[in-house]
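User: Good morning. I'm curious how pyridoxal-5'-phosphate would be positioned relative to this chain. Could you predict the structure with it bound?
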Amino acid sequence: MDMVQTLADTEFAVSSTHSYESGVVPRRGETVMVAGEGCWMIDSEGRRYLDMTSSQGVAMLGYGHPVLTAALQEQAGRLHACPNFFHNDTRASFLEKLISVTPDHLTRAFLGNSGAEAIDGAIKFARLATGRTGIVAARNSFHGRTVGALALTWNPRYRRKFEPLLPDVSHVHFNNIEQLDEAVDEGTAAVVLEVIQAEGGVHEGAAGFLAAAQALCRERGALLVVDEVQTGFGRTGRWFSFQHYDLEPDIIALAKGLGGGFPMGATVYTEQIQDSLFSGAHGSTFGGNPLACAAGIAALSVYQDGLIEQAERAGKRLWEALEAAVGSRRVVREIRGKGLLIGIDLRTKAVPFLKTLMEEHSVLALPAGSTVLRLLPPLTISDEEIDLAVEAIAATLPDSV
Ligand SMILES: *Cc1c(COP(=O)(O)O)cnc(C)c1O
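Assistant: Good morning! Here's the predicted structure, ligand included:
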């Protein structure tokens, strides 16, 4: 608490720091976040906010988790950087742990620093493994904003000004099997899907569509890539969201929760794909950084220690409490999601409610699409904190539209 108090007492030169930033990310007012504790963020005035976003889905253990903090401190004092051309003990331990928590058929991992980079790796590896260039993605998808990943991301607002992007990318309607059947052909390297579209509005894939995607890939020699960047590591109540559907993807893209909030990403894939890679096929200077790997080991060990099951229980409680509190209101079209990825689909724009939640109730939430209020709390959230969030949402959403 002392640290938090000291930080809160510090003067922050808000305008001078902000004036040098690119401004491409819209800001939420002038709030300066300076500390965190469990599921709470603390601003420069000492005000505490219940963070139902985990800092955009990354701080799955909340803030200041003792296991994560100790691991980072220990590694920082020993070796904080190491080139990829040397072996490194922490990286080796992390990889062993990562492969132990992914399904048995996924045996190799390329380490990078973000979700978009994990997707870029998946695109390159799929091209190498198949000798093809085509990618089929879904409308409403979000796969990141590097020039590679952006070609797969659907939102025209993000894409239009940067076209032409990668060639041979097509988008089918999510959950439309006929369109998928038409799109996947002998030129298709990969079908890339989120099994629950998070950013696009919290839409779950239909089991039949996802099974068809896998079957079509197998039949036509394409690879199935599942983007687990937002849904991985217990977010949906399982280690990975494709496990709700018994899928066997050839490649998965990981990031957000991988390092418990420390920046890292990974492209995890099969031994067969490994056979087609060559030295120099891909690389990333910071990928597999020892600090990131130490954070990753810590995060994975806490997930393994019952947190995935806890997320499933907490998600059920949150969903049921929301249904009871606001589910029957006119303004609410539907409450959907899995585990601790929940979307409240409204009959009106979501953004004004996010502002009220923050300013009047000190609760942080996210949008998804234009009408969905998205909740992505840390997996460590307590029952009391769930109740607080639901009370605030009930007080914020109107009784009528
Ligand atoms: C956040 C996200 C990405 C992009 O990750 P970055 O780390 O921002 O590059 C990709 N896919 C999904 C599903 C995401 O939620």
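The first strand starts at residue 33 and ends at 37. DSSP finds 14 helices and 17 strands in the chain.
Let me know if you'd like a different ligand tried.
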